[in-house]
Write a structure and sequence with these properties.
Blueprint (H helix, E strand, L loop, with lengths): L1 E2 L15 H12 L27 E6 L14 H10 L4 E3 L5 E3 L2 E6 L5 E6 L13 H15 L1 H7 L2 E8 L2 E6 L20 H4 L19 E7 L3 E6 L13 E6 L3 H10 L4 E2 L9 H5 L4 E4 L9 E6 L9 H10 L2 H8 L4 E3 L22 H10 L11 E6 L5 H15 L3 E6 L3 H9 L5 E6 L5 H4 L1 H4 L19 H11 L4 H18 L2 E7 L3 E4 L2 E2 L16 E2 L4
Parallel strand pairs: 2-11, 16-17, 16-18
Antiparallel strand pairs: 1-5, 3-4, 5-6, 6-8, 7-8, 9-10, 10-11, 12-20, 13-20, 14-18, 14-19, 15-19, 21-22
Helix pairs in contact: 1-6, 3-4, 8-10, 15-16
Length: 554
């Protein structure tokens, strides 16, 4: 066996109009230099902080956009995860190298054949309403609740034969076949443990307790003032003695990007994460004496930015056209001048921080002449106006950076004779059109969740071509060999054989170019220097914050 061992009188800065700041931000965007500031990949705050821990205090975190619900088991969007990760917990947590750490499971064993996973649970954990946490909650969550509410867990759980609780503090998963990714899928992002005594036998989406989340985490829900803030307070009976250090957390809802930047600059907010701060503002803010920058804490998510192409529609149904797009784009320019150094040029479908990555694939350096040669080979000769083909590009409405990216793509493709028409919509319209295959090309980025069997295969396998389902194989790409390799690799228990299969599938995909990979994204997390231990695991600020402490505001 392998073992492992009073805050109501808050400032209303987030309500102030910021028209002047918005204008200033727009002016700054127009005045950007040709070469952007290349930011280094900085390190997170150390978990073993040498300063003496100070108990108490309040933390202000930017929350954008406002989540639709706070019940993490029912919604896995990033804003819900940010708040819900303090309320709910998973069996395991993960360090920056994706090694499993204890969570609600204090220890575990994996059988040598990879079929049996035994978890030993915390005996002193309780729900925020005082009810004891037991193995029944884990069995209910894994077997009944989450397969209905989380498509990633549904895929993970499809490999499970039985899940049983031999006693109140032991849970045993018996798998149908080896599934090495299983140990990576037991965190709060995939399977937040839900209270059986509240949800069992109910309509989960219509449960009367959905407005007042109950978890086992270090912070419990107090109030959600819609459009303004979410307030959590320390759970005094948390299972880890002496934790949490903080008294309260306020998640401040700030829709305007310029106002979010101002809040970090003035110290009214202590933490921003994901895309809260526009990339062009990051270099300036990171140099302020009260702030520090880290790009760590996204290893589990490992976001990959790409151009998604509907392979059902000509000329995108021709591999040569898709390869030509890769050659037409200067992805180093995209990294340095649009994302301001926040990312690494992608080589293929797997992020270099995700397990099973290989760089040994076909490369696509910026080479417009090679792009033109491929288009010539397709018979797409330029007309009198220089245009070889026309495509429509649906701009992802997630901030200025994606608009700038779409404008660059239009310009770069125009230089090789492909005329791009940009089409804008709101976030709901974008999601609907993409999921219903009503597009030719668009921006997108998708999380990988630490393992190709969890977050990569879903984009490329044929049986995940599901109309109406976002973040599935919306491109319509189909390759029997790719399907076979992903299926076999997911259940291969031999490390060398599994690595070989994933290497082969990366080579095939890099040649086929079902999407045009741009960047392995590095989201910037900005932290006020009074905050300690905020980024210590692979989900960064989405983790539980039991160890976070703050120095008093000056």
């Amino acid at each position: 066996m392998r073992s492992t061992g009073n805050n109501n009188a808050r400032r209303a800065w987030y309500r102030r109009p910021q028209r002047g700041l918005m204008a200033a931000a727009a002016a700054a965007l127009l005045a950007l230099p040709v070469a952007g500031t290349l930011l280094p990949a900085t390190s997170a705050q150390a978990a073993d902080d040498t300063q003496a821990v100070q108990k108490g205090g309040t933390l202000d975190i930017i929350l954008n956009p406002e989540p639709p619900i706070l019940i993490l088991g029912l919604n896995q969007q990033a804003p819900t995860q940010l708040v819900g990760g303090k309320i709910y917990e998973g069996l395991l947590r993960y360090d920056h190298d994706l090694n499993p750490l204890p969570g609600l499971a204090k220890g575990w064993e994996i059988s040598e054949d990879g079929l049996t996973y035994t978890f030993h649970l915390r005996e002193n954990a309780t729900w925020h309403d005082g009810e004891p946490f037991t193995a029944d909650d884990v069995v209910f969550t894994a077997k009944t609740f989450t397969p209905e509410t989380n498509p990633r867990w549904r895929l993970i759980f499809s490999h499970v034969d039985t899940v049983e609780a031999p006693d109140d503090h032991t849970v045993v998963f018996n798998l149908k076949e080896p599934f090495p990714a299983f140990i990576i899928g037991l965190g709060v992002t995939n399977m937040p443990i839900m209270p059986a005594h509240i949800y069992e036998g109910t309509d989960y989406n219509d449960n009367e307790m959905n407005d007042t989340p109950i978890g086992t985490g270090p912070f419990k829900f107090v109030k959600w003032e819609k459009g303004s803030y979410v307030h959590l307070t320390a759970y005094d009976d948390y299972w880890q003695d002496g934790r949490p250090y903080l008294d309260d957390i306020y998640f401040r809802i700030i829709p305007d990007a310029a106002s979010r930047a101002l809040a970090m600059e003035t110290g009214d907010a202590d933490i921003s994460q994901f895309g809260n701060i526009e990339p062009f503002d990051v270099p300036r803010l990171s140099k302020l004496p009260n702030l520090e920058l880290t790009t760590k804490g996204y290893e589990m998510f490992a976001p990959m930015a790409w151009i998604e192409m509907n392979t059902r529609k000509p000329p995108l149904n021709d591999r040569r056209f898709r390869q030509a797009i890769m050659y037409a784009l200067d992805r180093e320019f995209i990294r340095d001048n649009i994302f301001f150094g926040l990312g690494r040029v992608a080589t293929g479908p797997i992020n270099s921080v995700t397990t099973q990555y290989t760089p040994d694939v076909q490369k696509y350096p910026h080479d417009p002449e090679k792009a033109k040669a491929l288009l010539d080979d397709m018979g797409l000769e330029p007309g009198s106006d220089g245009v070889r083909a026309n495509v429509e590009f649906l701009v992802m409405p997630y901030g200025e950076v994606w608009t700038r990216l779409a404008e660059y793509i239009k310009q770069a493709m125009g230089k090789v004779g492909v005329q791009v028409t940009l089409r804008s919509t709101d976030s709901a319209g974008w999601a609907q059109q993409l999921s219903n295959w009503d597009y030719q090309m668009t921006n997108d980025y998708v999380y990988q969740y630490g393992h190709p069997a969890l977050g990569v295969a879903r984009t490329y396998i044929s049986d995940n071509i599901r109309k109406g389902v976002l973040f599935s194989n919306t491109m319509g790409y189909s390759n029997e060999k790719v399907d076979e390799l992903f299926a076999k690799a997911a259940v291969e228990n031999d490390d060398a054989k599994r690595e070989q299969m994933y290497a082969e599938v990366q080579k095939i995909l890099a040649k086929d170019v079902p999407v045009a990979w741009l960047l392995e994204m590095e989201f910037p997390t900005l932290l006020n220097k009074r905050v300690h231990n905020a980024v210590t695991t692979a989900i960064g600020t989405s983790d539980n914050f039991a160890d976070v402490w703050v120095e008093p505001k000056q």
